[in-house]
Hints:
6-stranded parallel β-sheet, binds NADP nicotinamide-adenine-dinucleotide phosphate, two-stranded parallel sheet, Rossmann fold, 12 strands, alpha/beta
Amino acid sequence: MSKPTIMVTGANGQLGYELVRELSLLGNVLPVDIEELDMTQPDKIVKFMRDYKPNIVVNSAGYTAVDTAEDKSDFAMQVNGIAPGIIATELKKSGGLMVHFSTDFAYDGNKTTPYNENDLVNPISIYAKSKVAGDNAILESGVKHLIFRTSWIYGARGRNFLLTMLNMCKERTELSVVNDQFSAPTWSRALASGVGLVLGQKQAYEPSASGIYHITGGGQASWYEFAVQIAKYYEFKTDHRVAIFPVSTGEYPMKATRPKYSVLDNSKLNNTFGVIMPEWKLSFNHVMQDMGYNNPAKGIFPKLK
Ligand SMILES: NC(=O)c1ccc[n+]([C@@H]2O[C@H](COP(=O)([O-])OP(=O)(O)OC[C@H]3O[C@@H](n4cnc5c(N)ncnc54)[C@H](OP(=O)(O)O)[C@@H]3O)[C@@H](O)[C@H]2O)c1
């Protein structure tokens, strides 16, 4: 059986990096980032797709600077809203599969129980609007697709909350962190593994499997709760204690509005593909162990209660 060509865009990003590693088990991975293919250039996207003829495109490229996007809406829309539709249209012609990443920010955050895929989107920032436009462009193209909607991606590399917090811990003894926005931290590697498990199944390529799937770390947290865990591990390694104080969104204004509650229900993923995403705290423990922030007194895994 010939191996599929799997083009991974955004290959240098935090998720793309892990996808390249994971999906190499399934086919010939073609890693692509802005240097090879700039998503703001439609003609180049079309040419690239025709030159390389991927069977699957896993589009993890994105304009992900949520606050900056408020002032760069054209740019965010080109990368997040328009480019996915161009890729999808090309793939539709060749019968390929489009795998794409959407965001929990697609929802407005007014619910108080986890969102499922039938809930209506109502994006409340420029970034979120551009991402929803990308989802819609894929749906409208008629391509075979898997749109994975995820949240709060972090890992040992890239730009993310974990690494920002660790850097701040070096300089500070006190930090204030927002305690009224809830979602689920999602380890980039666990997410890539989940996607790999789906793409390893024949049914993923059936038109009947096409759709939106929620895929996030299990459980939920506020940014404050996430920060408390980070500070705890930081203290294990350095003996430097950083006190984390909860504040409201109103006390810590940011340019882009974020949903107050965007926890996603992963049931459809589990029911369709049998994939269970690990609890976020379990994944978080792995990341911190790998980064050397372990707690020698407790062993590799925290003791069961
Ligand atoms: N991060 C999250 O919490 C989160 C949550 C939900 C959904 N998502 C979605 O998941 C996907 C992956 O996110 P991530 O956190 O891995 O993002 P990331 O680390 O920012 O990676 C995105 C990659 O896309 C590249 N890129 C940006 N503009 C581009 C352009 N014009 N042409 C080609 N490539 C370009 C970036 O390059 P540069 O580094 O040079 O800009 C980067 O390598 C994105 O679609 C994002 O919207 C993310």
